[in-house]
Amino acid sequence: MDTEPPTAFDVVPTHLVATLFYKAPTPDVVPASPNELSNGTAPTGKLEEQPLEPSHVSQSCLSDFFVTLTNIISGLQQETIQSRKLQSRKLCRVVETTFPLPSTSTLNLDTLRRHEAVSQFEKKWSVECVFQADTIYRRHKRLAVFDMDSTLIQQEVIDEIASLIGVEKEVSAITAAAMNGELDFEASLRARCRLLKGVPSSVFETLKPRITLNPGVNDLIVALKRLGFKTAVLSGGFTPLTGWMGARLGLDYAFANHLVVSADGQHLTGELTGEIVHAEKKRQHVLEIASQEEILLEQVICIGDGANDLPMMGVAGLGVAFHAKPKVQLQAPARLNSKSMMDVLYLFGVTEAEQEMLLR
Question: What pTM value is reported for the model?
C-alpha cells in the first residue's frame, strides 16, 4: 500500500507561470506526425516553419507568446501578463512569464501544456514552454528525484555491459523499446539480464571509468543541496553503479535492481533478486520518501527520460522529461531539452545570477 505524504489544499491556481527556454534550432527534418517525433522536438503536427529569431528569446517572441495566450485563454488580457528575464545578459535565452487564470476560463493546466497553438508557437520561435501553477510550492521545492541512466548519466548501463560481451545490438534494441513504452519494463529487463549470464562480476568496476555525468548534473546537485533539498536516484538499472553514483553525488536515497552473482562470486547468473524497480515501484518510492521526510508532493520534482519514469512524474508537483524518449515527451507534464541540467533551477524562478551565487 502506498504511504501518502501530507498534501496541500486542492485549490484551482489563480496564476500560472510559463518558463520559456530558447532552444537552438536543428537542421534535421522533423516528421509531421506527433507519434514519429525524434527526441527534443515539440509535439505538433505542423512543423514546416523555421525559427524567426536566432539565439535568444526576443521581444517579438514574447509579444507573439502574449497573443497566443490571449487567443487560447478566454478572458485573459495582455496587460495582465508579466515577464521577467532570468538572465541578465542582453541576449537572454530564459524568460519567465506569469499571468492570471480568469475565473471564466475552462482551460486547465494539462490542456494548456498540450495545446496545438502552444506547440506551433514553440516551433515558430525555437523555444520550449514549461507551464506550472504559480504557487509558493513551485518556488520552494524540497525533494528532487532522478532517474539514472540517460538522465544523471549519459549511458544506459545495461547496454554498456552488453557491449563488453558482444550482445549490445540485441540488448540496446530491447532497451530502446522499453524506454519508449513499447514493451513491459519488467519483462524486458529480465530478458536483457538473461543475455548477461556469465559476465564477470567485476564488470561494474570495469564500467566505472566509462560512466559520464550529463552536463550540469554535478552543479545542479550542489545547488540543490545548498538550498536544503533532499535528493534521490531511482534506477531501473543495478545497485552496484547506482549506489556508487549516489555516494559520489552525495544523494540521500538510491534504489535500483539487484543482479544475482554466482555462488563462487565470479559471474553474473543473468537473474534478478528482490523487488524490481519498475514504473510503479519508482512511484511508490517517491511517495514513501516524501512521507518520511514530511515533504508535500507539491514540493517534489521528478526528472527522467523513459516511459517507466512517467508514474513518478505524475505524483510530483513537477515532472520533467529531460532529453526524453519521444512518447515520454508527449506524455510528461513538462519537457526540457536544453544543454545543461542546471536549467532545472530556472523552473523554480532561480535567476542565473542566483545560480552562480549557489555555486560559489
Answer: 0.87
